[in-house]
Amino acid sequence: MYTTTQRYTGEEEFRMHSPSPFLIIANKVLSGPVILNVGGKKHEVRWDTLDKFPSSRLGRLRHCVTHKGLQELCDAYSLGKREYYFDRSPRNFDAVLGLYRMGKLHLSQGVCVQDFCEELEYWGLTDLHLEPCCQHTYYRARWLLPQHNLGAEDLEETFGDGMFARTQKRLWNLFENPHHSCAAKVVAVVSCLFVVVSTLCLIFSTLPQFQQKDLNGVVQEEYFFEVAEAVFVGWFTFEYVIRFIAAPKKVKFLKGGMNVVDLLGILPYFMSLSLNLVTTSTTASQTKYQDEMRRIAQIFRIMRILRIFKLARHITG
User: What are phi and psi of 37, to 5 degrees?
Assistant: First the structure.
């Protein structure tokens, strides 16, 4: 085990006698494992193992051939011992190295999720590699982590300096950033519940026992489902309009993938409602036209199932 004094003494030595790129390349070409000393704990690995994630810190260390580059990637190193030093948590690094060796990233029991996030960021990795068995615990704990508030400078740059800038920011965080406050979490939970319940109502309304026919023999939804659908769409419309008003960049908001999904979850209801009004206002001599309009309205009713994709906004991973 190397102490801090020993590590930095070695680093000062290399500052005085920086090895040439040719010497670094020759050292990496040699066969055999290299030693990664993380927090005093040594790990022997092969360079080929680190090639699995070339954009990560260890992947860049594998291909770095300059003294300055190595200093930026590790705290100190010794070419003679083929050892690289990192002043980081050895416990979290076990999980990181497991990803390189086995292609699986697991969350160790008792590890602080915030520290684990910082370690992944330091090593140039993402939590997308987490195994399904650890995702629930990780994302649930991360969802509860407090987020840093934007400073005054960020507020002015993002939302401008108008008299409604602060109100716009509060509305945006309330409906767009569930990590910002408890109220934002409540709004996110309510939105998720509305999506799930509205989807279930849409499914149940298609069952024969919940359908009825009018005088013309046309299948109609139960009155309860019609009222429930109006309430759900009212909430989704209100949520979309508020988010659009509070968005700092309106054009970017409209082009956002999830925002397009939100809009597609709302429009079919209004389109089918409009078509139903047109159908009921036509005369009896336009039976063929009515049938076509009913078919189109039915297509829009089916398209309402797209709102299930709204859940992707509130589900991470």
Answer: -100, 105
3-state secondary structure of 4: helix
Using H for helix, E for strand and C for coil, what is the string for 195-262? HHHHHHHHHHCCCHHHEEECCCCCEEECHHHHHHHHHHHHHHHHHHHHHHHHCCCHHHHHHCHHHHHH
Residue type, 127: D
How confident is the model over 63-122, as pLDDT tens digits? 888 888 888 899 998 888 889 999 988 888 988 898 998 888 888 777 888 888 888 889
311 Cβ contact list (under 8 Å, min separation 6): 192, 195, 196
Q: Pick the closest to residue 304 from 263, 274, 258, 276 (CA basis).
A: 263
> If you average pLDDT over residues 168-172, what whole number do you get?
86
Going by the DSSP 8-state scheme, the letter that residue 108 receives in this structure is -
CA dist., res. 175 & res. 226, Å (int): 26
According to DSSP, the residues that pair with 83 across neighbouring strands are 35, 78
HSE-CB of 15 using CA atoms within 13 angstroms:
10
What sections of the chain are H helices per DSSP?
A: 4-16, 21-29, 47-50, 57-63, 67-73, 90-102, 113-122, 132-143, 152-159, 165-176, 182-204, 223-246, 250-255, 257-281, 287-303
Q: Pull the structure tokens for residue 79.
A: 């070419």
3-state secondary structure of 60: helix
Query: Whole-prediction pTM value?
Result: 0.47
User: What phi and psi values does residue 111 have, to the nearest 5 degrees?
Assistant: -80, 140
